[in-house]
Amino acid sequence: MPELPEVETIRRQLAPRLTQREVIDAGSFASQKFSPAIEVIGTTIEGVERRAKYLIISTDDDRELVVHLGMTGRFQFSSTGPDLANPHLRAWWRLTGPDGPETLEFVDTRRFGRIRVVAAGDYRSIPTLHQAGPEPWDPALTAKAFHRSLSRSRRAIKTQLLSQRPIAGVGNIYADEGLWDARVNPRATRLGLDRAGRLLVALRAALERGVNAGGTTLRDYRGLDGSVGSNQEELRAYGRGGEPCLRCGTEMRSGQVDARSTTWCPACQRY
DNA sequence: GTACGGCCCTGTTAGC
DNA sequence: TGCTAACAGGGCCGTA
Fold it and tell me: Whole-number Å distance, CA A70 to C1' B11?
């Protein structure tokens, strides 16, 4: 389940292999989620950026190919043509290369991913991206600003984090990790300035650990070369329901918040 | 505008 | 052993 660290890892791997390559052909699975892939045929790729959990591939005609990996999306290169026999192939791009053409494949088993082509910077057709809050390391995202943003809603803190509005790029895993680290109950509906500040620090630390580890691989996530991340070894809350809290030894509890599995320590993270 | 529920998807796992 | 149901969950959309 790619969140910011996984998407950033893939971005770093993709950028050097896509920049200044021309898209000479493309194809897609027959679905509006993926069919815009072909709209970049004939363009040259100028760069690969990331915003929230979206990969943004800019082209030389002032447009952007925006890709969300969903739950199971991943990229892989092929030196031959696209593997059309792969039932999970959702889109592919044939690119010029220094050693001849190669194919970038987008494989997504569960089809939660999506692809759009937009005018550069115009994300009105992608609501979550359009409304995404600041990047975690944006200097403008101070504890005060984060607190103010969280205070605008009475929804559960975890729900707000998953909305991408107070901070961009946090998904289910890193939300649980940050909340545990900051000792904030995921169902809390209001935080003081101090606790909001601690949560911001904890989320940044969790995301940074994830980036440094090359992402978290639980089931499907793979880097461009098929490599797995190692951050799953660092997880202290996510998926540890029923196990002892690493801080106080209390049995960790699991439940649903915003229809997402959530794990927290009932002692450290009192409501 | 905000909140909330339901849906999209398919591989894996648990339960019978 | 084989079948069925539950589960995983980010983003979007319709409804209240």
Answer: 15
